[in-house]
Design brief:
With 352 residues, this protein is mainly α. It has 18 helices and no strands. The protein has 3 domains: 111 residues, Orthogonal Bundle (Recoverin, domain 1), CATH 1.10.238; 71 residues, Orthogonal Bundle (Recoverin, domain 1); 141 residues, Recoverin, domain 1, CATH 1.10.238. It is globular and about 70 Å long.
Length: 352
């Protein structure tokens, strides 16, 4: 694969992007939603949701050479020129710096129909996954755990209305159908949580901050059915304990305040689901509402010490510290910040 990334296309082939350039000016014409889907499907040959590796080389080669009126051989564009173009384009459009182009990044790169481009919300991301979960609950009108075609159409209509854009019913149907085909990775005709998260970005996954990555690591597990025991093992594992040992009271407060959006001193409802969504994204690329609920059950079973269905700061700090303590041998107590366990004496005593 690495060898493929350095190779320009080796044979003469019809340039797919040339059809979208004006024959006289050679500039790109406005690309419709349907045409965008055709472009995406043409270059994402393995259907994994990214244009990368040899796919990216082919796309960039055709992007550069599509200005020519006729197909040309690979000798026309030097390796050095192609490499420079690749670096320039990735620098400008690869927002998450992963070395590949996703659907929303491609939409920024090409001259899209304005209303369709607005649907990607790149200029107006949600503040956090807490807001994402509120939006999810609003548009999952039948509480099925999925955003189905009519619900997606309702969401897109409200989104365009927020930008003061009014579209016809026919346009809405086209947009909804295109978005489904672009983001419905498992092709079940509806959007699960992880698919909707690609369509509706948030400003920041809080758990990508260094303190959280120290706790949860970078590994994608890609769990199969009935494999949530792996999550339980990870929550109770030595890596989490070692990270908890390094947590300060400020770290714990920072974690807590990021998700306690209403300031009521507890993480609950959409706040808790937002936390779980961020955590799930660290360990698994594809997940749905059932995965979040199962994860919630595990977390509350291990962390909700007073069984009120929510997490307060004392529970969060006590659980992290207790994991650190549990991983130590006799006489090897972890360094626990004094402030972190304030107000926890009664509960701690009852556990011993």
């Amino acid at each position: 694969m690495s060898a493929q990334k350095e190779k320009a296309p080796s044979k003469l082939s019809q340039n797919f992007l040339r059809q979208f350039r004006d024959k006289k000016t050679r500039k790109f014409k406005e690309i419709s939603a349907a045409n965008f889907m055709d472009v995406w499907n043409h270059y994402d040959t393995d259907g994994n949701g990214y244009i990368e590796g040899s796919e990216l080389d082919q796309f960039l080669y055709e992007l550069v050479t599509s200005v020519n009126t006729q197909d040309v051989g690979p000798e026309v564009v030097s390796q050095a020129a192609l490499k420079e173009a690749k670096a320039s384009i990735l620098s400008a459009f690869d927002e998450n710096k992963d070395g590949k182009i996703d659907i929303a990044e491609l939409a920024q790169l090409l001259p899209m129909e304005e209303n369709f481009l607005l649907l990607f919300r790149r200029e107006h991301p949600l503040e956090s996954s807490v807001e994402f979960m509120k939006t999810w609950r609003k548009y999952d009108e039948d509480h099925s755990g999925y955003i189905e075609a009519d619900e997606l159409k309702h969401f897109l209509k409200d989104l365009l209305k927020s930008f003061e854009k009014i579209v016809t019913e026919e346009q809405l149907i086209t947009y909804a159908d295109t978005m489904l085909q672009l983001f419905d990775r498992n092709k079940d005709g509806k959007l699960q949580l992880s698919e909707m998260a690609k369509l509706l970005p948030v400003k920041e996954n809080f758990l990508l901050r260094p303190i959280f990555k120290m706790l949860f690591g970078d590994t994608k597990w890609n769990l199969g059915p009935n494999e949530t025991y792996i999550i339980r093992k990870h929550i109770k594992g030595d890596k989490l304990a070692r990270g908890a040992k390094q947590l300060t009271p400020d770290d714990i407060s920072r974690v807590f305040n990021l998700y306690d959006r209403d300031g009521n001193k507890s993480i609950e409802d959409e706040e808790l689901h937002g936390f779980l969504k961020d955590l799930m994204e660290l360990v698994q690329e594809d997940y749905d509402a059932d995965d979040i609920e199962e994860f919630k059950d595990i977390l509350l079973r291990e962390c909700d010490l007073n069984h009120d269905g929510r997490i307060d700061k004392d529970e969060l700090s006590m659980v992290l510290i207790s994991f650190a303590k549990a991983s130590q041998g006799p006489g090897d107590e972890p360094d626990v910040p004094e402030d972190a366990s304030e107000g926890q004496g009664t509960s701690a005593a009852s556990k011993e």
